[in-house]
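== Sequence entry ==
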Amino acid sequence: MYKTFNDGMIEIITGPMFSGKSEELLKRLRILEYAKLKPLVIKPIFDNRFSENNIVSRSGVKHITHTIKNIEEIYALLEKDTYKAILIDEAHFFNESIVKVADDLANKGYLVIISGLDLNYLRKPFKHMAKLMAIAERVTKLQAICVICQHAASTSFRKIKSNKINLLGDIDEYEARCRKCHIMGEIKKI
């Protein structure tokens, strides 16, 4: 599965909320641990919805993680041990410098696996996620199920009024929707 990791590579796991991105990242983590490839696991300190210091999937699978404010802090963590892979959850919450950092780490021979939303609640790309997908060797785009029509959902619809791009939430604030149902929901908000 990761034959080329010694040469460094970037893999992106993306999709809307409720599509299983964290679950997929944790699956990759289990494979790496089984292969005895020591991973560094991080998430942004901003994401404290389910746990302060764990990545937690909605199915209840979890793993201890380092939480950092700025993506550049990853370099200090890498000095503390010999890691072969770096896994980053909720990458859309980091700033644009994640692109440079991920590229640098892959160039240094690390397997870099990044999970995060590709689109915000307005169906607009998180620019740094789009850039990461462009330079990645592998992109996995997951889908959820639209809560309105039960077709494939590719967007995260915000049910509450707020203009903040980064607004933490779960089922009370967001739901997975297909393109058509997302657009219809936005029209009803107006």
Summary: The first strand starts at residue 9 and ends at 14. The two ends are 47 Å apart (CA to CA).
